Structure formats: C-alpha cells, structure tokens
Amino acid sequence: MGEIDIDINLKVSSYEETVRQLDIYYGLVKRQLLRFQSPITGLFPTLSNEERVASVRESIYCAAAIWSLFQAYRRIDDDRGKSYELGQSAVKCMRGVLECWIKQAPRIEQFKKNQSSKFALHCKFHLITGDAVFSDEEYNHLQIDVVSLYLLFLVEMITSGMQIIYTQDEVAFIQNLVYYVERAYRTPDFGMWERGTKYNTGVPEIHASSIGMAKSALEAINGCNLFGEKGASWSVIYVDIDAHNRNRSIFETLLPRESSSKGVDTALLPTISFPAFATHEEFLSSTTKTTIIRQLKGQNGFRRFGRDGYKCVLEDPKRRFYKTGETKEFENIECEWPLFFMFMIIDGVFKSLPDQVDEYRNLLSNVICKDLNGDPCIPMYFYVSEECVEYERLEPGSQLRCNSSEGSGGDEPLYLWNQAMFVISQLLTTGLLHINELDPIRRYLPSYNRPRKGGRYSAFQGTATDLVVQIVLIAESMRLQAMMATYGIQTQTPH
C-alpha cells in the first residue's frame, strides 16, 4: 500500500509541475505574442513595434505557437480557461488571414488562368483593417509557400478538433486556394525570402522550398473535411493527383538545390523537416540537411543563402533592388539568423536525434537575450560590423558578429517569428508537448504509416486508423470513489 501511495504522490507532484511549467509558457505567450495580435484582424506584425503592416507568414507561425501551447494544455483537467483562450486566439488569426484573402478572391480566378505576380494573393495586410498595404509593384507578393503553409496548418488545427471554417463559401474558397498552389512546380515565385533570385533584381524563379511546401499542403488537405467530424461530403477538399505528382517529381529532382541561382538555402529546412516534411526519401533529406549545415551554419545562426545581402552593413536600405554583380560584395559577410537553430532543435526532436537537439540548444543559449520582463528573446540576426568586413572576407568566421537591435532585449522590438519558434521548440524539448500533438496528421511519418482519413473520402495513401483504447474505472463503493477522487482519478460506481 505504501508503494501505491508513493506512486500516486509522484504523479500528483508531476502533474503540478506540468501545470506550473505550462503556466510559465502561457505568461510568455501572453507577453510576447498575444500582446501584439491585432484585436480586429487577429493578425501579427513581423516586429512587435510595427503598428501598420501585418505579415501572413509570421502570423501563421505565431498562430502555430499559440496552438501548440493550446495542445499542451489539453492534458490538464482544469486550466482555468487558458486552453480555450489560446485555441480561440489561434482560430482568430487563421480566420483573419482567410478573411484578408477572401477579399482578394477575384485575383485567384485570374491567377488560375495566368500565374502572374500581378494576380498573386498578398502576403502583407494592414494590421487593423486587413486591407492591402503594398501594391504589386511595391512588394513581391507571389509567395506560393505562404499559401501552402496556411493550408498545412489549417489541416493540422482542424484535425486537432478546432473549428476554423464556418460556411460553404469558405470551403469553396479553400478549394480555390488548392488550385492556387497546385501549379507550384511551374510557377516562378519570390520564395521565402521575398526576393526571387539571389541577385535581388525583382525576377522570380522556381524554388524547391515553395514546391515542397505546396506538395506537403496538397498531401495534407486532400480528403480533409474542413468541418471536422461534423462535416459532410460537400465540405471535403480534393486535390488533382497529377498536379501533386508533378510537384513531387520536380521537387525531388531539384533537391538539394533550392533554385537555379541558389545552390543551397536554409528555406529548405522547414520544407524537408517541420512543418512540411515534404520528402521521406532518406538520401535526399539527409543530403539536403547536411549541405545546409556544411555551407550555411555559423556560430550565431544560419546564413540564408550564399551572397545574401539582406541586413548587411554594405546593403543600401534605400534601394529595393541590387545592381548587376552587387551580390559579390556580400560574399562571406552574410548575416546569420538564429531562427534556424530552433528549426534544427525541432527537427532533432521529431527524428529522435538527442545529440542534435543538445548541440543546437547550446548554440541557441549563447544568443538568447532578456527583455524588460526578464523573458528570453532571440535577436533577429547577427551581422558583421563595418570595421570588420574586410577581415571577415579574408578569413571567414574570424570576426565576432553583432546582434541586431531587433530581438536583442531591453525595450527593443521582438522578432515574432523567433519567439513563436522558441515557444514550440521549448514545449517539445521539455516534454510538455508530444510530436503527435504538434503534428496530428503525422506529416513526419512516411505516407504509408500515417493514419488514414475517414473511409469514404479521398486520400493518396494510408493505413488503418490509430487504435484508441478507452478505459472506465469502477469503484466498488461511494467511499472508494471519493478517496480516488482526491487523487484526481475519476471513477464510476456500479449503482
């Protein structure tokens, strides 16, 4: 009996510790993410001090971080309303993006006929009104991977039981978004870095990261009932399997390259790993990851790609495009982005690579700063100062890099994408969130190992659904039932 008491006490203390840790992350999310969510559109800015422009990409990752904490809280019996608040905040963001795009529905019809950047859905909107803020001439909106990322997390969240899509009109619009990304394999876009080719001359190109993200989105959403368990046949999304196969073949042909101008690019990390898991060909995946690590990893983060001039001290911020041959100036002095340390941590958790997790957690710990609340914050990037440029060019890696003001602590603005990824990586590494809770549709598994969608709807591949065992405890008396209840164990009596 004594051993049972000890075991129960351990479970109770473990439960209380879990609640305490979750509450810490709840406070962090409230202060660093939810605080900057627009109360009207539900969108998030790129930087916490931005009051006008919301970014769809950052909004999706912020919603994913909030949703991941919501998933972690679902283990708790009484979370005092926190789980509901987190879940609805994620829904508000996803619906905010949806509403912004629905306003641009005519552009999709034009885009289906002509995959031109002038018909692309916008990736930046007004934080308060949800209106377009940059014209097609002012900003490179054609980013197939953003729409694909949205579809991917939409399916993940709906699968976890959240209600995001409300009407048949919205179902039809999501089906149109599928048509929008299906032709990714032959649609030159501006990619994750919003600049097109590495030369930054305003020219789009075919990006493996965009194609891979589209492939994953198509696999995820095919056969998905947008109304969840309450839906009918008309709320199911279908995908052209030929379009999927073309995306798959082109994507796997391009790897480990990102595009014709970029030999290797860290944009492929979220494509081959979380959240997309676009390929399960072990050779392709490991070769791509190894190439990225070998060529782009630094002490403070990963460079985005070779000769990337973004945020370098030599870059002229007043000019949108570079001159011919200007990228040569940025060789070996590219900025390093700690964001990808967190992608590598998450990758290590999903692939059960504890050494990789430890390595990148240690690297990340070296760059973490503290804000005025004492909360951890991660600088947006690290750059080579002007006086060190020549030394760094002569001997790459010899000079200490300076952290950007963004995300560097104190009263400096936060880079929300970093903070969102930090929350997700911490929840995973502390054991508060399981990979199946972060990826309910099991993208991390090969297609033949994923749970099959409900019988009568479309799915590319799959096996039998996961077996769920449910247990009911019967207490022999009311007294025993009351005693068990004191330990948080719910039982029923036979009478």
From TrEMBL:
<dbReference type="GO" id="GO:0005964">
    <property type="term" value="C:phosphorylase kinase complex"/>
</dbReference>
<protein>
    <recommendedName>
        <fullName>Phosphorylase b kinase regulatory subunit</fullName>
    </recommendedName>
</protein>
<dbReference type="InterPro" id="IPR011613">
    <property type="entry name" value="GH15-like"/>
</dbReference>
<dbReference type="GO" id="GO:0005886">
    <property type="term" value="C:plasma membrane"/>
</dbReference>
<comment type="similarity">
    <text>Belongs to the phosphorylase b kinase regulatory chain family.</text>
</comment>
<dbReference type="InterPro" id="IPR008734">
    <property type="entry name" value="PHK_A/B_su"/>
</dbReference>
<keyword id="KW-0472">Membrane</keyword>
<comment type="pathway">
    <text>Glycan biosynthesis; glycogen metabolism.</text>
</comment>
<dbReference type="GO" id="GO:0005977">
    <property type="term" value="P:glycogen metabolic process"/>
</dbReference>
<keyword id="KW-0636">Prenylation</keyword>
<keyword id="KW-0112">Calmodulin-binding</keyword>
<comment type="function">
    <text>Phosphorylase b kinase catalyzes the phosphorylation of serine in certain substrates, including troponin I.</text>
</comment>
<dbReference type="InterPro" id="IPR008928">
    <property type="entry name" value="6-hairpin_glycosidase_sf"/>
</dbReference>
<dbReference type="Pfam" id="PF00723">
    <property type="entry name" value="Glyco_hydro_15"/>
</dbReference>
<keyword id="KW-0449">Lipoprotein</keyword>
<keyword id="KW-0321">Glycogen metabolism</keyword>
<feature type="domain" description="GH15-like">
    <location>
        <begin position="21"/>
        <end position="451"/>
    </location>
</feature>
<dbReference type="GO" id="GO:0005516">
    <property type="term" value="F:calmodulin binding"/>
</dbReference>
<keyword id="KW-0119">Carbohydrate metabolism</keyword>
<keyword id="KW-1003">Cell membrane</keyword>
